[in-house]
Amino acid sequence: MMTRNAQFRKRLAEKRIIVAPGAYDAMCAKIIEKQGFEALYMSGAGLSYSLLGKPDIGLLTQTEMAARAAYLSEAVELPIIADADTGFGNALNVARTVKEYERAGVSCIQLEDQVMPKRCGHMSGKALISAAEMCAKIRAACDARQDEDFCIMARTDAIAVEGYDRALERAFAYREAGADLLFVEAPRTEEMMRSLCAALPDCPMLANMVEGGRTPLFSASELEDMGFRVVIFPGAASRVIAFAVNALMEHLREKGGTADYLDRMYDFGRLNEILELEAIRRWEQAHAEGENTLAHRG
Hints:
Family: Belongs to the isocitrate lyase/PEP mutase superfamily. Methylisocitrate lyase family.
Distance between the termini: 33 Å
Structural class: alpha/beta
Oligomer: single chain
EC number: 4.1.3.30
Number of helices: 14
GO molecular function, one term: methylisocitrate lyase activity
Organism: Mailhella massiliensis
Strand content: 5-15%
Number of strands: 8
Keywords: Lyase
Shape: globular
């Protein structure tokens, strides 16, 4: 049976685009899987929102993010593309981060070329490490992985800091250093996005759709036509849930109850159905104390 890592690498070689919605917890991951997507993206921003109630400004630690990746991996069978910020330090730290993420069940790790602490790619005020240092980190990541099907994604935030031409130079260098997938953050026009894909046709390129960000929003089919192999929607679920919870709390404050709000939520039974309560109960019954012993005696 093909492993998740091998499954992801095989799909990455195809021209058909992979749509990877963002998930920040296991429940969100299970919903993504049930909707038939082929992969999911663990968003560092989403984790910062949900775990800390803070924006994406590099506050989470390596162990916090790796632990959350393990929860997602346990909850679903999908390949997981996981944000690892800057790798949490130098090449030595990156090597440990790769091992922790691989142990957590991740299929593709995302490393970026910002200085620590990083910022969301669609924020201002970013600063970059040198291209040479980032290449050293990519080589360290490649050397540290145990499974050759585990993918290394290199992200550059250079468009906002150094301009498009330097971003393209960095992308070429990161590919040469061993990156399996490239993520050039925050291109501002369709022309720029098409140019990126045309310049690096031999390397899978990722598009990042951030609602309210600096990159125009396109559908998966439109991005596939441009040449992208993967598209992530990292914060869509977080934004929808924040909007929905805010509306619920406004209603609860004004009305004092939720009886007239049931058409806008999953009730107790439906949510447990999504989370597969009955399957868990069947497994529990099959492994109840004494049952296996009796079966073997029979």
